[in-house]
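During the reporting period the student researcher (J.K.) took over the structure-prediction task from the postdoctoral fellow and processed the backlog of single-chain submissions. One of the processed entries is reproduced below for the supervisory committee.
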Amino acid sequence: MDMSKENRKQRGKEKNKVVFPIAEKLSDMSDSYRGFIGEIKSKIKHERLKAVLSANKSMILMYWQIGKSILERQEKEGWGTKVIDRMSHDLKEEFADILGFSPRNLKYMRKFADVWKDYELVQRTVAQIPWRSNITLLDKLKEPELRLWYAQKTIENGYGKDMLIFQIESQLHLREGKSVSNFNKALPPSDSDLAVQSFKDPYIFDFVGNDKHKLERELEQSLIDHIQKFLLELGQGFAFVGRQVHLELGDNDYYLDLLFYHIKLKSYVVVELKIGKFDPGYVSKLNMYLNVVNDVFCKPGDNNTIGLLLVKSKDKLVVEYSLTGFLNPIGVSNWESEITKTIPENIKSNLPSIEEIEKELRDE
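J.K. obtained the following structure tokens:
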């Protein structure tokens, strides 16, 4: 064979060869490391015998055990981060058919075990949600209490990774239970707390586009077009019943914007949509709707119907006075779209309101 061709072939081999920052051959590694990697391999084999690796809980508990082992050995042996690259190579070589042993993922396992130190807590909570969602909790949140709170919400509501990211970025923990309501007076204590936690303020309807809606019907149609996302934003327990539900009272016809049933509360929920600022008159009309639904729709075992009024803006004090005296449970919350939520306040304050734009159009 031509010598230059042989040299090129040799250089090609060297170019494709994996180069490690520490000893290339496992036999050249210390006895301590060889024993350690042997233990890790045994743990993986043991878990594979217990359950299929793709089973989420088994996989995540195994990841926690690997991460904990890495932490303990690094502390005991003084190993640096380069050992992760070595481990990745050895585990991939042994378990070529299993994904998840990249250096990046092994570092997440170490962080996972460092963040969640209580194995029983891991079993009860974060082992119940997908690994990608666990990585989201590690990347997006620093406070242990918030990580646990969002992990529990993920389990309760079945959030996928994208929805979990959205709820974290929209600060669900600050919105849940913030609706202005009379629940504590209109509902018995056993139902009041659950009702408070079932409603939030504001609601984020990022899927309806911007604030171009000039009619409530347009907003309603947007919510219906994205009913699955709407239900996710409403939260766990809401079941869609109907839209523009007809009520006939004497010679008058009325239509409920949206009607839901809350399974945990065992209550119908009437949702009324407004594109403008809160007006006290809205409460009176909504209260009438609740009385009719209680009489016409409710069956034995159903609790009193709850009203949710969604407005573009409100004065909390005005809302509180407006709700005083009503016996039906009513909550009032703002709704926002993604675009208004993300516009900086100093810019948003200089933008014309919907009312101002409509006035300009009328004056032309």
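The committee noted the following: The chain has two domains: 19-128, 175-363.
J.K. will present the remaining backlog at the next meeting.
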